[in-house]
Amino acid sequence: MLLLLLLLQLLLLLQQLLILLLLLLLLLLLLLLLLLQLMLLLLLLLLLLLLLLLLLLLLLLLLLILLLLLLLLLLLLDAAIFT
User: How many domains would you assign to the chain?
Assistant: First the structure.
């Protein structure tokens, strides 16, 4: 009878340990998901920053083209005045 009680106590202890282990595993999984979400957020922010940089580069290129056209127009006007 005493052996049976001891075995039952051991089984209850094992069950509690198993529940604790499962809870720890769940916590680890949640932390991993949070980390993944943060990484995805950082990746999204990096993509947005790259897009913004590309837009800025495109704007600068457009400005350069406009300045070159203005310079060409001034040269043509200068040539038209002197002839």
Answer: 1
